[in-house]
Amino acid sequence: MSDSSLNTVADDSSDPRSTAGLAAGRSTTAAALDAADPLAHVRERFLLPDGVIYLDGNSLGALPAGVPEALRDAVHRQWGTDLIRSWNANDWWGAPARIGDRIGALIGAAPGRVVCGDSTSIQIFNAIAGALRLRPGRGVVLADPDSFPTDLYLADSIAGLLGAEVRRVPVGEAAEVLRADGDSIAVIAYNHVDYRSGELRDLPGLTAAAHAAGALALWDLCHSAGAFPIDLDAHDVDLAVGCGYKYLSGGPGAPAFVYVAERHIAAFEPALTGWHGHANPFGMEAGYTPAPGIERARIGTPPLLSMLALEAALDAYDGVSMAEVRAKGLALTDLFIACVGDLGLETLTPIEHARRGSQVAVRHPEAHAVMAALIDRGVIGDVRPPDVLRFGFNPLYIGHADVVEAARVLGDILETGAYKEARYAVRSTVT
Ligand SMILES: Cc1ncc(COP(=O)(O)O)c(C=O)c1O
Ligand SMILES: Nc1c(O)cccc1C(=O)C[C@H](N)C(=O)O
């Protein structure tokens, strides 16, 4: 869907330049897009409350319909009845690699290159350490000063422990720095999609630039895994991490995942050498020998209930083509960008499809109050400092009519000034 086709639809109404005329045009567009949406039926695979338009799936994904039953089974049958036998009988032991492979299928990784477990923060720590050890003699980690903060905190910590240096280089300057100063750089560690603006970074280009300098590329896929195709193997990415609770909808605290390119697995030495990553875990040996495959990236006992919830959540992708997810994500964000443009608001998110993830960030000086008013009216997004309203669009459960309705509510709140009384109460996002 191009921006120009969106704009011409508004001309169909009697007075296309009026707010009502624009809204009518957008609604007509949305209805047509929903009618033709090949993913429309996937919405039934999620349980969403009535009266809510959920645009925060880029922070915590909605509840997939199969998860409650999967958890009931995990608790009552697997834990309650099968007890310790579940490690074999229900293959709890195999869950990290089994679920890793399913995530791998969504991010372009062949089986045996992804394991699921622990948090993104822990995976970042382990992956940066692993990257530094794969490039001995090079002590620099390149990281974006605008990365999600945990990425920077962990990079600083591991660099301190290993005597490395974190150089904060904005993503737009990374290729130049790699050309000029590549000899010292061990790894570039960037976010694939910027959590604030929704900008999609040039993963293939920067990965190639890192390789040309002899460095590795580590990508944080938190805001891209499950939202569109990524093709890690095809782009020769070295390492990647991501979380299970955003677009993958694995639930609060869902385990994260790590990808290691096949060519690095045998030499990959994680910092955290827990017994689940041991070659012979039940040998109970005193010394650590890493497992031969990707299982060496496992650490300790995984949070099985969360992991099984994530596994059930991934059923929402059954029979779904990631190319269709991408096409719909772009159509949804195109439409929302057009709608907020009608309201005269400034969008931070790039217009170019090649530079856009699956969220739209809108600036407003009273962002917290505006979001509070939106949430009061059932449109759930969030806020990031200093003045950014974030709206995430998961194509599996958001429709085009939702987009237009969310924008209509936003327009109404701004026009009536209803936001002036509102209080933003989402604890995790209060500044
Ligand atoms: C890019 C990015 N990395 C990491 C995280 C979080 O890591 P963790 O799941 O360990 O809290 C987030 C969001 O919370 C994120 O947006
Ligand atoms: N991980 C989160 C959490 O533990 C509490 C509240 C929100 C989150 C988020 O996912 C925030 C998200 N990564 C962001 O892009 O800001």
UniProtKB/TrEMBL annotation:
Supply the InterPro entries for this chain. Kynureninase, PyrdxlP-dep_Trfase, PyrdxlP-dep_Trfase_major, PyrdxlP-dep_Trfase_small
Q: What is the purpose of this protein?
A: Catalyzes the cleavage of L-kynurenine (L-Kyn) and L-3-hydroxykynurenine (L-3OHKyn) into anthranilic acid (AA) and 3-hydroxyanthranilic acid (3-OHAA), respectively.
Lineage runs: Bacteria, Bacillati, Actinomycetota, Actinomycetes, Kitasatosporales
EC numbers listed for it are 3.7.1.3
GO annotations of cellular component type: cytoplasm
* Class in the EC hierarchy, top level: hydrolase
The cofactors named for this UniProt entry are: pyridoxal 5'-phosphate
Q: Which reaction does it catalyse?
A: L-kynurenine + H2O = anthranilate + L-alanine + H(+); 3-hydroxy-L-kynurenine + H2O = 3-hydroxyanthranilate + L-alanine + H(+)
Query: Native species of this protein?
Result: Embleya hyalina
Q: What is the name attached to this protein's record?
A: Kynureninase
Q: Name the Pfam families on file.
A: KYNU_C
